[in-house]
Design goal:
GO terms for molecular function: sigma factor antagonist activity. The protein is α+β, with helices and mostly antiparallel strands. It is built from eight helices and 31 strands.
């Protein structure tokens, strides 16, 4: 119940009197401030009261303000004193004036505090934005710093939203005003609300939605801006980019020149194992070699000419290399806005139907790149402690696990129980001796992490839109095992049992229709691309890149990235 108005006014005058008398306490001062902020109709009266005391504070005793009774007495004496004594008293008044000015300043502060608060930008932390990195992981390098906040409301998306001056890979959600950041590679970016903007690397960012302007004044490297369908590359240019609700991209060049190219829709790597046995195994996209452990065996393909059998021995492995990575966020296995790992497998996993209680747990790895907490993992697992990293949590037992490190979320695994419930396959169905098409995807544009088996979605979980992957580094990627140290020995500790074929690695998430089409091709005895991979690679290499010059504007389609006239 609110207090009557006369009670409010009485409180203000009592507190003001205590303030002028120099006996107000800290808690009383806070009460006075709150009353004046909540009741602006009394502010002018309060100021008049301060000026009244300026006129009455005409006598000082031992450096302290006199009581109201003493002030009244002093005023009467002043009126009756001779001129010389009045001059002396005027000096006292000047001394008192200094103290009264202080009182007046406090009053003005209280009167002006509310509008001033509206102009103060949000306070931000002076440390890096590593609020989401765990103790077992070395944080990625700083990629950008805060330049300016124009009356903005914003946060880093994740478990513990934070404001900071220094950014490691992560996504900023701007809900009002403008946020300007300076990338360590030399690009200055101004993000207008409402927008969702990801900072990936020192020379790369992602506009999930909204509008930004970009300008380069430092650095020699190009800056790449990713949108749902295109990549915008500049080399010292000023331009504007926006992404609308239909995921269409608008580019307007203000100065210089930019190159706009459709995003790639082929895998970064595709291991078919179809090379003749007398030749080494290579990647079908870039012809990069594979090192095979001695307990792998080349066998007839589940699709095409060849496949590889693994016999659950420590040196049953295919070492793919680091992809050129040196630290987290680098190399060809470093992805940010999406990923797909796709494979055909015949599983002979020997795990029991119940969860294992103690080491060594029998994990069968399909694909793994072990860069500590920034690992990429797709494997069969069975232990009773999986809930530590699960999102969402499921009951212990045999599962197919898909693990990634997501910015703002940390490392977690989507563990699909092999229990036959809610459309999921059973363990017996997985190891029935038949080939199964397994696809694991994460889509940063939707936040959906998913596992497909034989062309159908079997389990998924949604994270906040714009949540990016942090991956890559110096450790090798491996098919059929886990190798993290001394990888030159090709010896690991989580070997696969069975046959693996047609492994593909993408830097984006395949959509459900494409997954179903790939499975249909497999059912027809064809590879995922219906034998047209070489043609598709050539088309992508030739590209449909567009050069835009100063003053030019263009819109690009959401699905294909092609110009829209």
């Amino acid at each position: 119940m609110s207090k009557p108005e006369n009670s409010v006014s009485e409180q203000i005058w009592e507190l003001a009197d205590a303030q002028c008398s120099g006996i107000i306490t800290e808690s009383e001062m806070e009460t006075l401030e709150r009353l004046l902020l909540d009741h602006p109709e009394y502010r002018q009266d309060y100021l008049d009261y301060i000026f009244l005391h300026m006129g009455l504070a005409s006598a000082v005793t031992s450096g302290e303000l006199l009581s109201s009774t003493a002030i009244e007495k002093s005023v009467k004496q002043y009126q009756a004193e001779p001129v010389k004594e009045k001059k002396s008293l005027r000096l006292s008044i000047m001394q008192a004036l200094c103290l009264v000015v202080c009182l007046l300043s406090v009053g003005l502060f209280l009167l002006l505090k509310e509008p001033l608060q509206k102009e103060v930008p949000p306070q931000v932390a002076e440390q890096s934005s590593q609020y989401y990195f765990d103790d077992n992981a070395t944080p990625p390098d700083e990629v950008a710093t805060l330049s300016e906040v124009a009356q903005a409301t914003w946060e880093l998306i994740g478990k513990s939203p934070a404001l900071t001056h220094h950014f490691q890979p992560g996504t900023v959600k701007v809900t009002s005003g403008n946020v300007e950041v300076a990338f360590s590679g030399g690009a200055d970016i101004s993000v207008e609300s409402p927008a969702l903007f990801g900072m990936e690397r020192k020379n790369q960012g992602t506009l999930f939605s909204g509008t930004l302007s970009a300008r380069r004044k430092n650095g020699t490297d190009s800056f790449t801006l990713e949108t749902p369908s295109v990549e915008v590359v500049d080399r010292g240019t000023e331009y504007e980019v926006s992404v609308n609700e239909a995921a269409e991209t608008y580019v307007h060049v203000l100065d210089g020149q930019v190159e706009v190219k459709p995003r790639g829709r082929l895998p970064r790597f595709f291991w078919t194992f179809d090379q003749p046995k007398a030749e080494p195994l290579i990647d079908s996209i870039g012809n990069r070699s594979i090192q095979a452990g001695k307990n792998t065996k080349r066998v007839p393909g589940l699709v095409g000419a060849g496949a590889v059998r693994f016999n659950n021995r420590p040196d049953a492995s295919l070492l793919l290399g680091s992809g050129g990575g040196k630290e987290v966020g680098t190399g060809d296995f470093s992805v940010s806005t999406g990923i797909t790992v796709e494979a055909l497998v015949i599983s002979e996993w020997k795990t029991p139907n119940t969860p294992q209680k103690k080491d060594p747990f029998d994990y069968d790895e399909i694909f793994r790149k072990e860069d500590g907490s920034y690992r990429i993992l797709l494997s069969f697992q069975n232990d009773d402690k999986a809930g530590i990293t699960q999102i969402p949590t499921v009951d212990p037992g045999p599962c197919l696990s898909f693990g990634l490190f997501l910015s703002g979320m940390g490392y977690s695994e989507l563990d699909m129980p092999l229990d036959g419930k809610e459309g999921r396959p059973t363990l017996e169905e997985i190891r029935d001796g038949k080939p199964h098409h397994i696809v694991a995807t994460y889509n940063g544009w939707t936040g959906v992490k998913a596992i497909y088996i034989d062309g159908k979605l079997r389990m998924s979980h949604r994270f906040p839109v714009g949540t990016m992957i942090i991956s890559g580094g110096s450790k090798p990627a491996v098919i059929g095992n886990l190798i993290s140290d001394r990888f030159e020995t090709l010896v690991g500790r989580e070997p696969f049992t069975g046959v693996i074929d047609e492994v593909a690695f993408y830097d984006y998430a395949l959509d459900p229709a494409t997954v179903a089409a790939h499975y249909a091709n497999v059912q027809s005895g064809k590879d995922y691309f219906d034998g047209q991979l070489s043609k598709f690679v050539l088309q992508e290499q030739q590209g449909g890149n567009v050069l835009l010059n100063k003053g030019e504007k263009m819109k690009f389609a959401a699905e294909t990235g092609e110009p829209m006239l």
